[in-house]
Every structure is written in structure tokens, then in C-alpha cells.
């Protein structure tokens, strides 16, 4: 189809969609004729040895995109599967990145489109009848949030919710004994840890950090507050992942050794600090305040007087990512994709951010090497060294791999859990209802997920948009979505993706290769005119490597 004809058809389709589908829709398509482009336009970016990342992305033709990498990337397919990298329509991106509308009114290609975001209350999704794949099972889905696990259960029992996330361990037996409800376990693919920033005294002293590690009886915490399927973190990364648990296990509790280290560090009588958290039930932290209270009591045994500091969820998240918490904090890594590398790069290596303070150079160097290494033997050795250094330097204390559960009304067909917390609402159907209501723990921070890292946002984005690949329902297995295939060159430095033809965005625009180039370029290049989001830090990009034009980037603390 010629370019002029394609634009005319897309314009007609946009008008037709707006009149026929009803509800609140993204503004009509501002169609941009396909034009082959590259970013950077002047040629590949300069690659820094050992840092990986992109060199250039270009549209070879209307339905072919080529990614040139600076180093082999064993996780390429998993990365392009993430909802953080859902493809944007170039016209919509140009029109609504700067004015912020893209954060509140996303325009995707997924089975659901946004009907309304009633701030503080719910997000209403309507079935997108122009979807290229299997249509949603019901006309409407509603995503709600409720911090209190007991309140979520009440909604399920009352029939005002069809599914609830993160069932409290105290409620699991109640649900299991109710034939009208269904309890489903989620694989424990996360690590909850007690974080410490070495930018703030006394946690700039490794002896203090090690004393905190030795003070804690982590098994007691798991036994008391975590559901079945959970486990004490013997290593930072869950042992179900390849190479995750090479090397010695974590410290056992030793109160006297902890006191000795504190005395050597100049704190024979301990010190005062805070334990910061957000009171949001998550798979890795099913009872936040109870866990914090138990940690508080355990730390008191070595003289550390810890005050519990509960912060508003978005504020807490931003403070952690910005390295602004001077005391202890309860946080976790939940993987973007199921690979040991993702856990390690989440905290260490290039662009890991200031969460833990100043970089741990030895760990960072190994993390960076792992990100560009495909040889299995070397990867195994790298992760053994990483584990040894984490135990030696104690940037945090890994506590638990938290199992979790999702509960549904028993008449919901297609009910499932996702190890990546990406339950697919389109696959579920209540028996006699036309609306599916799912209740999670908190409100999304934003719906432009290139610039969001909280899983409440990412779950919502995964319903509305799509990447080149995505994850099969209920699994962590990647499969083609907007691409029919992405194939690598023999040296793994070039990936060529063939796009699915005839795919439409919710505003009626047709997908082409320029949309992919603009999506990735606007996130990657801090000097790009469309490098604008809710915070404009675009933290998820760190899994790819360095930003382009880093001198123009906004740091999380700004």
C-alpha cells in the first residue's frame, strides 16, 4: 500500500473507530507518513567498552526495524517483552509527550483501551474491538486498588470484585475453605531486602552494615509473616534461576558478633535510625508493618533504636530510587524478566541509580561484565563472585523470596497468576457478568510505563499496550506480539525485527517501523525532544545500558 493511500485509510479508520466504539478514547490519530529513519540520524552512537547498550536503531522499511547493539545481549528478547517498552504511535507521542497527556491517557495497541482513570478510585478499561489478536473475554474490565488486604477479601466475598491480588497469609485458609472462591499461588520470583544507603552515616561503615545482617533472624520473619511457598533468601537471587546461588549462603543470626562489630565501628551502645516503608501489601512483603515491627525488635537486641517511618507509596518509591532514605528501608527486586542478570543489574552496574548510595565498584564491574557475556561458564563464575562480594560488602540484607497468592470468584474462567505480576485481564471471564473487576494493592503512579517502575503501573500498562514481544499468559515465557519475529546476527550485535502488518493503535493509527524507532529513541536519548514523562528519569531504561546524551538526563534525585 502506498504512503498516501495508507495515510488516507488510517485517517478514515480513526474517524470510524471514534464514532463506532464509544467511550473515552485517545485523541484521533495524527497520522505521520512512513519515512525511513535512524537514531542517531548521523550514525551509530559511540560505544563504551564494557557498558553494552544500543548503538543505533533504524527502520529498514515500513515493517522492519534493526537494533544495532554495542555488545551481545543475552536478554534482548526478554527486554523487548517488557511493558515499559510498549510501542507508541509516533503521532500521539509527538502531540502528547510534552503536555503530559500520555501519562494519563495512554494510546496503545492492546486488547483493552482506557475509558476512564478516576483518580483515587479506579481505572476503567473497555474492550478494543479493533485488536489484532484474541479479543478480551468481556466488554469491560475495572482495575481498583485497596491497601488493606482484609478489605480486598471483603470485596471478593461480597461479589464487588472478581479477583484480588496479594492475599494475606491470614486469609488464605478462609478462601481455601470457601467453595465460591478460588485461591491460586504465585511463584516466588522476588527478593525482599533491608536496604541501607552507604551515602549516610553510620551505614557508610561496612561493619555497621554487617552488624545489621548478623542481628536478623530471617527465618523467624518468614515463618511468622509469609505464606506457604515463601523461602528465606540464602542468596540475593532466588535459587530457581540459573547460576543464582553459586557460592556461600548468607549469614546466620549472631547477636554477639553483631554487637562486637558495632563497638568496633564506634557504637558500643548502638544508635538511632529509621525503618522506612510503604504500607502496601506486595508479594514480597505481605504484612509490611508487622515485618517492620519485628525487625525493630530484633535490631533493639544489639542497641539499634529504630523508628518505623511509613511513607505515602509514590513518595516512598521516589525516595528509594532517588537515594533519599538515610536509614533502613524495606524494598525488593521483582524481576522484569526471569534471569539472574536482571536481579544483579537491578541494583548494580551501569546506571543502577543511587538507591544504595555510592557505587560498589567491584560488584558493578562484575555486573557490567555479566551483561555482555553469553558464555555459560564465565557467567557462572561471575555470579559466584557477585554473591561473595554482596556477602562481604553487605549493600543490603536479603530476607525473603515471598510467595503470594491471588484469589478469584470460582466462576471466573481463565483465572491465573503471573510470576511477573502481569495477570492478563483479557483472558478472564466471569460466568454471568459483563465486567471483570480486579483489585490490587495501590494506585498506578502513571500509565506511560517507559517512565514508571512500580508494578501497579506496569500491570495496567500491560493491559493497554504491547511491545515487540510479550509474555505468555501466566508465564515468564516471551512470545511475539507487535513483531512476528526478532532474529539476531551470528555475532549477536544486530537484531532485526519484522513487524506485524495491519495493527492499529486505539486512536486508529497504523503501526509501522517509525513508531518503534521513535518509541525507543525518545526513551534512550535524554536530548530527544520527546524524552518527557511523569518524572522524565526513565529509570527502566537502565536494563539496556547507558542513556544517549547523558549530560541532558534528569537524575532520580532532581
Produce a short descriptive summary:
The chain has 558 residues and is α+β, with helices and mostly antiparallel strands.
What does this structure look like?
The protein has 558 residues and is α+β, with helices and mostly antiparallel strands. It folds into three domains: 1-109 and 467-558, no CATH class; 110-187 and 403-464, D-Maltodextrin-Binding Protein, domain 2 (3-Layer(aba) Sandwich); 191-401, Dipeptide-binding Protein, domain 3 (Roll), CATH 3.10.105.10. The longest helix is centred in the first third of the chain and has 19 residues, at 3-21. Strand 2 and strand 3 (64-69) form a beta hairpin. The strands form four sheets. The protein has a seven-stranded mixed β-sheet with strand order 4-5-6-16-7-15-8, with helices on both faces. The chain contains 16 helices and 20 strands.
Features:
558 residues; Dipeptide-binding Protein, domain 3; D-Maltodextrin-Binding Protein, domain 2; 6-stranded mixed β-sheet; alpha+beta
Give the topology, please.
Elements: H1 3-21, E1 38-39, E2 54-61, E3 64-69, H2 76-80, H3 90-96, H4 101-104, E4 112-118, E5 122-127, E6 140-145, H5 149-158, E7 163-164, H6 169-176, E8 181-186, E9 191-196, H7 206-215, H8 218-225, E10 231-232, H9 255-264, E11 271-278, H10 288-300, E12 304-311, H11 313-321, E13 328-333, H12 340-347, H13 361-371, H14 376-393, E14 396-401, E15 404-409, E16 435-440, H15 455-464, E17 469-471, E18 478-480, E19 483-488, E20 494-499, H16 513-524
Parallel strand pairs: 6-16, 7-16, 11-12, 11-13
Antiparallel strand pairs: 1-2, 2-3, 3-20, 4-5, 5-6, 7-15, 8-15, 9-13, 9-14, 10-14, 17-18, 19-20
Amino acid at each position: 500500500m502506498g504512503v498516501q493511500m495508507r495515510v488516507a485509510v488510517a485517517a478514515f479508520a480513526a474517524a470510524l473507530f471514534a464514532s463506532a466504539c464509544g467511550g473515552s478514547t485517545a485523541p484521533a490519530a495524527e497520522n505521520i507518513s512512513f519515512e525511513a529513519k535512524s537514531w542517531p540520524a548521523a550514525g551509530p552512537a559511540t560505544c563504551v567498552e564494557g557498558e553494552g547498550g544500543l548503538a543505533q536503531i533504524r527502520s529498514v522499511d515500513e515493517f522492519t526495524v534493526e537494533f544495532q547493539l554495542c555488545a551481545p545481549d543475552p536478554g534482548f528478547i526478554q527486554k523487548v517483552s517488557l511493558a515499559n517498552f510498549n510501542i507508541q504511535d509516533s503521532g500521539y507521542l509527538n502531540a502528547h509527550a510534552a503536555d503530559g497527556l500520555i501519562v494519563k491517557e495512554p494510546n496503545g495497541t492492546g486488547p483493552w483501551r482506557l475509558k476512564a482513570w478516576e483518580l483515587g478510585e479506579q481505572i476503567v478499561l473497555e474492550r478494543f474491538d479493533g485488536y489484532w489478536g484474541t479479543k478480551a473475554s468481556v466488554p469491560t474490565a475495572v482495575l481498583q486498588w485497596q491497601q488493606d488486604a482484609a478489605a480486598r477479601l471483603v470485596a471478593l466475598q461480597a461479589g464487588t470484585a472478581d479477583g484480588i491480588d496479594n492475599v494475606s497469609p491470614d486469609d488464605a485458609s478462609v478462601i481455601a475453605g470457601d467453595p465460591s472462591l478460588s485461591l491460586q499461588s504465585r511463584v516466588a520470583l522476588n527478593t525482599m531486602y533491608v536496604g541501607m544507603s552507604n551515602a549516610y552515616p553510620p551505614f557508610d561503615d561496612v561493619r555497621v552494615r554487617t552488624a545489621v545482617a548478623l542481628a536478623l533472624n530471617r527465618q523467624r520473619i518468614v515463618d511468622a509473616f509469609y505464606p506457604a511457598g515463601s523461602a528465606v533468601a540464602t542468596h540475593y537471587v532466588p535459587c530457581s534461576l540459573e547460576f543464582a546461588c553459586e557460592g556461600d549462603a548468607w549469614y546466620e543470626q549472631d547477636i554477639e558478633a553483631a554487637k562486637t562489630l558495632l563497638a568496633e565501628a564506634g557504637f558500643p551502645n548502638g544508635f538511632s535510625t529509621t525503618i522506612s516503608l510503604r504500607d502496601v501489601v506486595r508479594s514480597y512483603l505481605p504484612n509490611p508493618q508487622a515485618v517492620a515491627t519485628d525487625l525493630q525488635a530484633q535490631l533493639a537486641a544489639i542497641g539499634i533504636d529504630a523508628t518505623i517511618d511509613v511513607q505515602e507509596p509514590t513518595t516512598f518509591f521516589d525516595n528509594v530510587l532517588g537515594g533519599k532514605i538515610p536509614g533502613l528501608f524495606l524494598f525488593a527486586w521483582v524481576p522484569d524478566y526471569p534471569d539472574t542478570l536482571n536481579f544483579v543489574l537491578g541494583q548494580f552496574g551501569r546506571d543502577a541509580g543511587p538507591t544504595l548510595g555510592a557505587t560498589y565498584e567491584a560488584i558493578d564491574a562484575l555486573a557490567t561484565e555479566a551483561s555482555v557475556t553469553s558464555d555459560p561458564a564465565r557467567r557462572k563464575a561471575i555470579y559466584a563472585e557477585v554473591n561473595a562480594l554482596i556477602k562481604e560488602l553487605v549493600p543490603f540484607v536479603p530476607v525473603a523470596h515471598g510467595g503470594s497468592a491471588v484469589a478469584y470468584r470460582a466462576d471466573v474462567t481463565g483465572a491465573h497468576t503471573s510470576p511477573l505480576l502481569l495477570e492478563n485481564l483479557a483472558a478472564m471471564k466471569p460466568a454471568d457478568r459483563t465486567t471483570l473487576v480486579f483489585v490490587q494493592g495501590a494506585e498506578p503512579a502513571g500509565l506511560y510505563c517507559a517512565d514508571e517502575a512500580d508494578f501497579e503501573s506496569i500491570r495496567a500498562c500491560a493491559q493497554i499496550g504491547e511491545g515487540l514481544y510479550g509474555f505468555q499468559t501466566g508465564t515468564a515465557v516471551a512470545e511475539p506480539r507487535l513483531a512476528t519475529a526478532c532474529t539476531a546476527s551470528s555475532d549477536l550485535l544486530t537484531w532485526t525485527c519484522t513487524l506485524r502488518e495491519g495493527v492499529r493503535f486505539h486512536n486508529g493509527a497504523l503501526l509501522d517501523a517509525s513508531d518503534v524507532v521513535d518509541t525507543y529513541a525518545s526513551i534512550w536519548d535524554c536530548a530527544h525532544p520527546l524524552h518527557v514523562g511523569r518524572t522524565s528519569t526513565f529509570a527502566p531504561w537502565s536494563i539496556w545500558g547507558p542513556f544517549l546524551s547523558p549530560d541532558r538526563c534528569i537524575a532520580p534525585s532532581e
